[in-house]
Amino acid sequence: MIPDFKDAKILVVDDDERLRTQLVNAMNRRGLVAVGAGDYDSAIAALEAAPFDFGILDLKMPGQNGLELLRDMNQRWPEVAVVLMTGYGSIATAIDAVKLGAVNYVQKPADADDLLAALERGISGPLGEATQDYTAPTLARAEWEHIQRVLADCAGNVSEAARRLGVHRRTLQRKLNALPPRD
């Protein structure tokens, strides 16, 4: 953990009350001042009430989602470094998050240490020289990522995504219901 986190104020936004409470408590134990919010509106209210240094946002929430919150936070509070977390991870969503101003992206399950490490990596600047060789994704993984990107481009419309991919809608639905390939 970097020293700047000591006494920093962090907003944790997740609709899962149990996870949100665990993360807030874990952040407080690590010396941060953590505040939780369960949805877009309560997050905006918290941001308007007090300044924050960092934010951790869940992607999927009822009403306005984490990407919409991220967009609005970046417009009104650009000084807040944000990590987006999700249980529905894809490269397409990660790209959207970074384009909207997130400093990093974490896939659930993630604990407080994972999230703080993601914040640290996101605000520490450019990476140094690579320590590992690049390993190309498997064909199955590349296909799954491509499907997720096309689906995101179609705003989640499965029929339109199937048309753009040149596959039957049921075939696409079967692929979407399957677990993503490991690597």
Describe the model.
By secondary structure, the chain is of the alpha/beta class. The protein folds into two domains: 3-123, Rossmann fold, CATH 3.40.50; 139-177, Homeodomain-like (Arc Repressor Mutant, subunit A), CATH 1.10.10. Helix content is 48%, strand content 14%. The protein has eight helices and five strands.
Structural topology:
Elements: E1 9-13, H1 17-29, E2 33-37, H2 40-49, E3 54-58, H3 66-76, E4 81-86, H4 91-99, E5 104-107, H5 112-123, H6 139-153, H7 158-165, H8 169-177
Parallel strand pairs: 1-2, 1-3, 3-4, 4-5
Which terms would index this structure?
183 residues; alpha/beta; Rossmann fold; Arc Repressor Mutant, subunit A; 2 domains; five-stranded parallel β-sheet; globular
- Rg, alpha carbons: 18 Å
User: Which runs of at least 5 residues are low in confidence (pLDDT < 50)?
Assistant: none
CATH topology of the largest domain: Rossmann fold
CATH class of the largest domain: Alpha Beta
Tell me roughly what share of residues is in helical segments. Answer: 40-55%
Structural class: alpha/beta
Mean pLDDT: 86
Physical arrangement of strands within the biggest beta sheet: 2-1-3-4-5
Q: Which CATH architecture of the largest domain is right?
A: 3-Layer(aba) Sandwich
Q: How many DSSP H or I helices?
A: 8
- String of helices and strands: EHEHEHEHEHHHH
How does the overall form come out from the CA principal axes? globular
Concise synopsis of the structure shown:
With 183 residues, the chain is of the alpha/beta class.
